[in-house]
Predict the structure.
Amino acid sequence: MIERSEKGRETANLPGEVATWRGRARRYLPLLLWIGFILFASTGSLSATNTSRIVRPLLLWLNPDITEESLLYAHLVVRKTAHLFEYAVLAVLAARAFLTSTRAVLRRHWYAVAFALVALVAVLDEYHQSFVETRTGTPYDSLIDVTGGALGLALVGLWRRLRYKKSNRAGRAQALKF
C-alpha cells in the first residue's frame, strides 16, 4: 500500500522505501540499460563475423594446433553461451527491479513478470535479427535466451531461499540467548 509521508511524498509499504524518481531509476535504469545492450548486440556489430575476430585469435593462442572445424564449433559454443549469460543477467536485473518495486503486485509476482519480460525481449531480439542482413533470427536462439533467463531467476530464487534460512537460523539463535 502506498501512503503519503509528512512531506507529501508517496511512500511504499516497504520499510524505508520511497516511491520517487530516484528510487525508480535505481531499480529500473540498470534493467533498461541491459535491454539496450541486448538490442545493440542483436545488430550487425556483434554478428558471427565480427565476434570471430576476437574469438578466433584467442582460441588459436590457447591452442595453436586447433582444427578449423573445432574453431567453428568453439565459436558457436562461445556465442550460445553468451546468449545464456546475457539473458541470465537480464533476469537477475528484472528480478531485482520487481522484488524492490513499490507496487505490491510486482513484488508478489516477481518471478512471473521477470520471466515474461525475458521471454518478450528474447522473441523481439530474434525477430529484430531476422531483418539484419548479417544476423539470423531463430526460435532456437529464443529458447536458449529463455533458458538463460530461467537459470538467472532460479539463482535469484535459490539466493533468496538461502538468505531466508540464514536469517531464520540467526533469529532462532538470538531467541535462544534470552
User: Anything to note?
Assistant: The mean pLDDT is 83.
